[in-house]
Amino acid sequence: MADPTCESTGVVSTHKDRSIAWTVTIAFGVVILIPCLMGFIVKFGELVALTKDPADGGFAITPVINYLLASAGFFFLLLWAALNGMFRDLERPKYLMLENERELDAHG
Amino acid sequence: MTATAITSDTKSHEELVDEKIVKFYLITALIFLTTSMLAGILVALQMIRHNPFAGIELFSPGRWRMVHTNAVAYGFLANGFLGCLHWAIPRLTLQPVANKKLSWFIFAAWQVVVGATAIGILLGEAQGLEWGETPVWIDPLAQVGLLLVAINFMTPIARMKGPMYVSLWYFLAAFVWTFLTYAMGNFIPEYFVSGTSAGAVGGLFIHDLVGLFVTPLGWGLMYYFVPILLKRPIWSHGLSLVGFWGLAFFYPLQGIHHFLYTPIPLFLQYGAIVSTIAVELVVTTVIINFFGSIWGNAGVVRTNLPIRWFYTGMIYYFLTCLQCAFQVTLTFQKVIHFTDWVVGHAHMVMFGVFSMWIMGMMTYLFPRLLGRNWASRSLCEWHYWLSTLGLFVMAADLILLGLFQGWSWAALEPWDASVDFSFPFWVLRVIAGLAMFGGLLAFLTNIWLTFRAAPVTAPVKSGGLLPT
Ligand code: HEM
Asked: In a designed cystine with B193, which of A56, B197, B342, B391 is the match (CB 3.0 to 4.6 A)?
């Protein structure tokens, strides 16, 4: 689907472009997730074992809890954003931003 | 839900953007960069035993080194970013900042913080935390300043309706992260923990300042300035959001990669390594997105100087991240830890990436702010080439030297031997540093000449660059 603002910037987004973008996105998603998942499962096992150690258990678990607290905020933000339609028309903001820029310069 | 678009009620550029404060921030940033670079040259001269101020306590290299890094982070990068944010956020949200008087108060307070820090350091008042040298009595003021910055900029973003452009996601996160990171680094080791734990928090602080303050602001601004200068949208907005959320989730896990081989449990070190690799992949998506955006139009870097600065910075960014992928392995750490490799890496990222982006933004903004075209295109070119080549030589020199130092120490050669063979490399660093400083002087001269020139009547566009 060609966007009108897109045409006025001289760039025509075709169906092919979009499917390439999707393929690249999914490929990167998979490439990122697989090593992380593998690393996570192995290390999670070690972590569980270590937390049982009375001497080192607390030391080991502190940074993990810190991370979870820091990420929890972002996790909820992500949920909130998704529920509020922030990712619905994913490509629209990039056209709108350029359109607004042009208007501001034209009338500024 | 519709996203914010221009309507008849939308304010004009003049109502949205306080150009005067942008100008003040950018000029102040350059004053601090000049101070910092002079301090860097002084420290570099000390390393080749040519310190012109030897014996004067106030000018002792240990203090100037801290002025160098502190003034560059809080005086140059922070002021440069704040100036550009005062331009970008109101234009992106079509809302002015929360309060323009508050902006001026923050501006003045921030200069007091950075100026007092430099004076405090020179008088021997530094806090023992790298990049957190700000004397302890200034920390609460800086913390309040960061809170006010967040309020002033987050208000227009919160007032926006509909899906947000990726830059705004980065900015929102940066305001929260910077506030938290500053508090963590400056208060926890000072008042709550000590010993190795304090060391670990200190390392995490430096790491997070780069990743959670400088990086999101830098990329957020690139996602704004690159499309408007290329006059075409970013290649994929979806992919840009992958980059943002990837940073948000993977970056905080990486801190421990600064503590490989320490007593911290190995699974945590491995966790940091894996998440660092994940961030490398996230970074690659960002780079692909920007190169996808310029695809088919790359010739523009010859004529459009801001774009050239931006893309050069991105190439350096990719190189530093590639370096990180190696640095994070235990094998590599064995060689490079504590060597000049790290200093080369630090300059490549801080100057090669973020300073280059700020220079590009300044090259675009100054003509618009001054209402004049650049007085001299060739001074713009000198600025670019001296900075780019100077940095390239400095980084390559130190990175190579780091390897030699690491191998020498691993072979248990005497420490003095490594100092001796480092000497010519350190001389080259001074030469490269002088070239970078020469680039800055060309820029300052050009700004002065432009300021003195007659204003143009038509609006200044495309970076205000005269034809070659
Ligand atoms: C005139 C150009 C410059 C010269 C001659 C110079 C020189 C130096 C020297 C001698 C050090 C101390 C290295 C050590 O302790 O072994 C240093 C550290 C550092 N400089 Fe620069 N510098 C210059 C420009 C810059 C710029 C523009 C930035 C940032 C935008 C920067 C960022 C840093 C950082 C982050 C460090 C700390 C590195 C670390 O601890 O690993 N420098 N610089």
From this structure: B197
